[in-house]
Amino acid sequence: xxxxxxxxxxxxxxxxxxxxxxxxxxxxxxxxxxxxxxxxxxxxxxxxxxxxxxxxxxxxxxxxxxxxxxxxxxxxxxxxxxxxxxxxxxxxxxxxxxxxxxxx
Length: 104
Description:
Elements: E1 14-18, E2 30-35, E3 39-41, H1 44-47, E4 49-51, E5 59-63, E6 66-70, E7 82-84, E8 89-91, E9 102-103
Antiparallel strand pairs: 1-2, 2-6, 3-8, 4-7, 5-6, 7-9
């Protein structure tokens, strides 16, 4: 019987962020993070830290290999927002965490 190959021990790799991380004069209503494999979110309510807090909080959606954040209309001008995902992003099959990613 086939063994199925080696166990996946690598976390997902971020392929692109739109708008790019550390963008200035940000006007987008969505942030799209695209990965090299299917992802899942683990304990996102506990892991996700946004500074300064957004009210309401962004809506989070997974679509194939992408994580999409729909941002509220109430973002303050001349303010830098930091979104820290902690260990919430992981690959779908083995749960390997894409640890410590921060989007600014």
